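Take just one protein record:
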Amino acid sequence: HSGEEYGYDRLLTVLQENRHEDAADIHSAILDDLQAFQHGREYDDDMTLVVLKWHGLPVGAVPETMLLGEA
């Protein structure tokens, strides 16, 4: 991929395809896809990748008045 960036759309595709996995597996999937994108060439820049997976708040954790925008 001479000069082509990995890109946001490609990242979103990997996230969508792995959305049911845990954070560690999503992390691995992103790195695996980046490696495939690089065709095995070494990545020659610094990289930081943090994957957080949030399952939302349990039902009843937020008072209904806050959900309606009332104080």
Remarks:
- The mean pLDDT is 85.
- The helical segments are 8-17, 23-37, 64-67.
- The longest helix spans residues 23-37.
- The radius of gyration is 18 Å.
